[in-house]
Each structure stands twice: as C-alpha cells, then as structure tokens.
Design brief:
The protein contains nine helices and no strands. With 191 residues, it is an all-alpha fold.
Length: 191
C-alpha cells in the first residue's frame, strides 16, 4: 500500500493522470481489504474527480461501482444506491453497455435492499432493454423480413428514384411510394 501511494505521487508529478486514476483505484481496493473505509472513500473520491475532470466515463463508472460496493459493505445501502445510479448515468453517457448493465443490476439489488421495490422493477426493466440493444443497433435496426421481401424488387430490378420524373423507373417508384402511403393510412385508420 505504501509502495502504491508513492507510485501515485510519482505519476502525479509526471503528469500521468491515467496512471494516477488507476493507482488511486487500486489503492482504494487495498484500503478496502484492510477495512480503512475513510481512506478508501478518499482515494475513490480523488480518482472520481480526476475521471470527471478528464471526461473519462469508463473509469468514472468503474470508480462509482467500487464506491457503491464500499458503501454497501459498510452498511449504507442508500449511499451505495446513489453511487450505482451515478455509475449508470456515466456508463450510458459513455456508451459502455456492459458497465451500464452491471450498474443497473447492482442498483436493482440495492433498491430491493432498502425496500424501494418500484425502483428495483424499473431498473430491471431498463437493464433488460439495455441488454437487448447491441451497439450495432443504436443508429439502425434490422428490417422485418416482410419489409425486406416487399422491397426486394425495388432494390434490385425496379430501382428508380420516386422523384425522377423523366423516365419509367422513376414513375413506377413514385406510384409504389404513393400506394404504400395509402396502405399505411388505411391500416392506421382501421386501428
């Protein structure tokens, strides 16, 4: 622990902020093992401040999850839940899906422990939604097979642009788009 503290000071003096954050986080873990709650909280707080200052969402999420575990292990589930909520926000902001899922699971456990069942259920639902989203499906999603089949001729054989009014392919595409709009209006009015 003393060696790690010295290393953190050396890294800080050298301007190696990433190594300082990691060192403080590891130092806090050692302090937690020897039950030095206040020292660990101080180390984690400093690591979190550095993560926030340099907008490092991943290390901030990890530090907040460690803080949640620290608070929970010392009988303060309310503070642990706050830290888990903050970890969720940081992980979501950074697009860190696994960390966000881990934080949501911890938040659900903590909410249950303090008797906030409604929040636990909401957190579990959010975790399920997040788990079903892969990073590849954020900007777009796979098309339904029926849509693909309906579009296949228009993508391979009849590929005219509906705004092109100078040739047959454009006229056909415009007619197909108009027919699709009418079908959509009919199906939405029948519901």
């Amino acid at each position: 622990e003393v060696h790690l503290s010295r290393s953190v000071r050396v890294y800080r003096a050298a301007g190696e902020i990433g190594l300082v954050r990691r060192g403080l986080h590891n130092l806090a873990r050692l302090q937690m093992k020897r039950s030095a709650f206040f020292d660990a909280a101080q180390s984690l707080g400093t690591a979190l401040a550095l993560s926030s200052r340099y907008d490092d969402q991943e290390s901030a999420s990890i530090v907040l999850l460690t803080m949640a575990g620290l608070y929970d292990s010392h009988g303060n589930p309310s503070l642990a839940l706050q830290s888990a909520r903050r970890a969720i926000l940081r992980a979501d902001a950074g697009g860190l899906f696994r960390l966000a899922l881990e934080a949501r699971c911890l938040a659900a456990q903590l909410a249950t422990a303090i008797g906030n069942i409604a929040e636990a259920h909401a957190t579990i639902r959010a975790a399920r939604r997040g788990a079903s989203q892969s990073p590849d499906h954020l900007a777009t999603t796979p098309a339904e097979p029926r849509v693909v089949e309906a579009m296949r001729p228009w993508l391979s054989e009849r590929f005219g642009h509906p705004a092109s009014r100078s040739h047959r392919l454009g006229w056909d595409a415009e007619a197909a788009v108009e027919a699709a709009r009418i079908l959509q209006e009919l199906s939405s009015s029948s519901q």
